[in-house]
Amino acid sequence: MNLKIERGDIYRALVIGLLYALLRTGMTYWREEAATMDLVSFLGHLLIGAVISLVLGILFPKMK
Q1: In the chain, where are the structural domains located?
Q2: All residues at 6 or more sequence positions from 14 whose CB lies less than 8 Å from its CB, including other chains
């Protein structure tokens, strides 16, 4: 198993994490009228998306 993480993998993980965070906070805002974009929630979703992307990139390196 190759556990080498390159710079491109980190950038891809951050972009996917950003898209995931925007999607999740946007859905929350749309669903709850009075909701505000909470910075902690946004950063949490960004981290979750980035970690999921990195883990999937390590588990399935051929799909990069």
Answers
A1: 7-59
A2: 46, 50
